[in-house]
Amino acid sequence: MWPGSRFVLFLMVALAACGANGTSAEVREPEGLWTGPMRGETPNTLQGAVVVDVAGLEALLPKDPILLDVGPADKKPEGFPKDRLWLPTHRSIPKAVWLPGAGAATLEAAQEEAFLRRVEELTQGDDAKPIVVFCQPQCWGSWNAGKRLVTHGFTRVHWFPGGVDSWQETHDTVAVDVDEDWPVPPAK
What we know:
CATH topology: Oxidized Rhodanese, domain 1
Strand content: 5-15%
Number of domains: 1
CATH architecture: 3-Layer(aba) Sandwich
Number of strands: 7
Largest sheet: 5 strands, parallel
Oligomer: single chain
Shape: globular
CATH class: Alpha Beta
Strand order of the largest sheet: 1-6-5-2-4
Helix content: 25-40%
Structural class: alpha/beta
Radius of gyration: 19 Å
Distance between the termini: 50 Å
């Protein structure tokens, strides 16, 4: 092989793996909940749910959907001084209910029951009430939460994969606290 030909071959293989436009191949939906790393490329679909972007979310807001933020709570940085107060602030879409960790693939049975019970309370027993699940871009947690809701019979689930980051490009966010009726799962 002449010099540089290996690089050209490598480049051709890399471009083929990424597709002609340089983006990664389409991620397929798993059959059940995603059990791999929570951060990474997600599918463009969620069977049984409607995928929305910012415009789609804006169109839903007049219907007063339940906004479920399942993004994780901030973790105290290693080496954080013990004599300093740790006061993380979670910012979200206005009127969002924050249920950190609710998108984990493996919730304890009591935690999953608490999630479904809390959503049932928020929807006042209306399985057709619009629900929007989100966290951050490339977050499987919101996909899992949406999948869990669809699996349990909620019929108007919307997944907002752009999450808070996408929302705040054109809208304000607000500081939210963990929902008072949500038992935060233990950190793993």
